[in-house]
């Protein structure tokens, strides 16, 4: 072997280090896929009041979904759960499509809306929750009611959407979540829990085990003037808040939009309804940079001005991309029904479109 002088030695050492760095960099990139390479897990709700159009959308995007949530079971005047006539008709159809397609998981969503004896509904009834959660015995009775209802149609899981929780009830609510999770797990069923943006995650003791879903919407809506249901800063804020919880959880986005009249009642719109109104816009249709949402103005038959903001396929793609950047790959959509064809195509493929 011939001698190597100091200059040649240094050159060989530098070359070796550079080659080693390239090898390490290559291995690292092979084992850590980029955000765009990771598959999005997508779920969606079907509501009882819009189940027919919801099922049509559902049928079109089953290949893009990993689960569907049947919304919802409600409470009667004696604090017991029941299915609406619409859901009694809808559920067998939903189960049939699940078995025929690639989707296998169907959850039952339970919401704290109560129907009184006179037929009037109290939405998001806080007092109902106080009664249900008051004692270990009352929680057990409610859990037994939930399990019985979920077993009627052999749901794979249960989702709890209890909103407007009183501060004083959170300790009992968290105990209920844990007790329900244990009961469902024993029978092979899962538990998802929907959280409002106002949920004091940092102050309460939410149990480990259930999957959590943060509502990343209602930024603007019935309670405000015109604007998007969500924007990118809001998504980032909610994603950061959810990082206090264990496991991989969901961010939930709302489809469609709202119609704000100059005076009168604000109305919710599906994407298709908003797209139809867009055809009579009196202003250029624009896309909001901060949210990706579409907005415009139109005149009604009485010549009164309305402002519409809504989410289309591009909006959803941007929101999902923001979620991925924040480290969230599980997305829930509120709700099916009234999607445009471009949105159906996007949700089925989940390819970047903007």
Provide a concise account of the structure shown.
This protein has 354 residues and is α/β, with parallel strands linked by helices.
Explain what you see.
- The chain is α/β, with parallel strands linked by helices.
- It contains ten helices and 15 strands.
- It has helices spanning 6-31, 51-60, 85-100, 126-133, 136-152, 170-186, 232-242, 271-278, 313-325, 341-349; strands at 41-47, 67-75, 81-83, 105-115, 121-122, 157-161, 190-195, 211-215, 250-254, 256-261, 267-269, 286-287, 294-299, 305-311, 330-334.
- The strands form two sheets. It has an eight-stranded parallel beta barrel with strand order 1-2-4-6-7-8-9-15, surrounded by six helices. It has a five-stranded antiparallel beta sheet with strand order 11-10-14-13-12.
- A hairpin with a 5-residue loop joins strand 2 (67-75) and strand 3.
- The longest helix is centred in the N-terminal third of the chain and has 26 residues, at 6-31.
- It is globular, with a radius of gyration of 25 Å.
- The model is unreliable at 1-36 (pLDDT under 50).
Fraction of helical residues: 25-40%
Sum up the overall morphology in one term. Answer: globular
Outline the low-pLDDT stretches. 1-36
Strand order of the largest sheet: 1-2-4-6-7-8-9-15
Q: How would you state the average pLDDT, rounded?
A: 90
How much of the sequence lies in strands comes to: 15-25%
| Order of helix and strand elements from N to C terminus | HEHEEHEEHHEHEEHEEEHEEEHEH
Radius of gyration: 25 Å
Main β-sheet, in a few words?
8 strands, parallel, barrel
Give the beta-strand count: 15
Termini distance? 60 Å
Overall SS class: alpha/beta
Number of helices: 10
């Amino acid at each position: 072997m011939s001698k190597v002088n100091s200059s040649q030695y240094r050159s060989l050492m530098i070359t070796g280090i550079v080659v080693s760095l390239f090898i390490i960099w290559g291995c690292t990139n092979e084992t850590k896929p980029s955000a765009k390479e990771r598959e999005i897990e997508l779920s969606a709700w079907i509501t009882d009041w819009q189940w027919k159009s919801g099922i049509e959308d559902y049928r079109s995007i089953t290949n893009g979904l990993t689960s569907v949530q049947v919304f919802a079971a409600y409470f009667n005047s004696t604090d017991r759960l029941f299915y609406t006539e619409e859901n009694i008709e809808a559920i067998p159809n939903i189960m049939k499509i699940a078995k025929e397609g690639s989707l296998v998981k169907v959850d039952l969503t339970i919401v704290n809306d109560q129907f009184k004896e006179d037929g009037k509904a109290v939405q998001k009834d806080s007092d109902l929750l106080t009664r249900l959660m008051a004692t270990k015995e009352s929680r057990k009775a409610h859990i037994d009611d939930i399990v019985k209802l979920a077993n009627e149609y052999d749901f794979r899981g249960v989702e709890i959407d209890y909103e407007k929780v009183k501060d004083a009830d959170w300790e009992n609510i968290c105990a209920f979540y844990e007790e329900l999770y244990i009961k469902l797990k024993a029978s092979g069923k899962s538990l998802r829990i929907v959280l409002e943006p106002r949920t004091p995650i940092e102050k309460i003791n939410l149990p480990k085990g259930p999957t959590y879903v943060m509502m990343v919407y209602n930024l603007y809506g019935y309670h405000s003037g015109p604007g998007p249901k969500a924007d990118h800063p809001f998504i980032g804020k909610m994603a950061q808040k959810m990082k206090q919880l264990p496991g991989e959880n969901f961010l939930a986005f709302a489809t469609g939009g709202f119609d704000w009249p100059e005076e009168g009642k604000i109305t919710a719109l599906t994407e298709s309804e908003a797209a139809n109104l867009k055809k009579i816009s009196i202003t250029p249709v624009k896309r909001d940079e901060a949210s990706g949402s579409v907005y415009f103005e139109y005149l009604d038959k009485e010549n009164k001005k309305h402002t519409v903001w809504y989410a289309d396929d591009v909006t959803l793609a941007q929101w999902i991309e923001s979620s991925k950047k924040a480290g969230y790959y599980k997305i829930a959509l509120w709700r099916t029904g009234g999607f445009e064809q471009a949105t159906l195509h996007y949700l089925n493929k989940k390819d970047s479109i903007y």
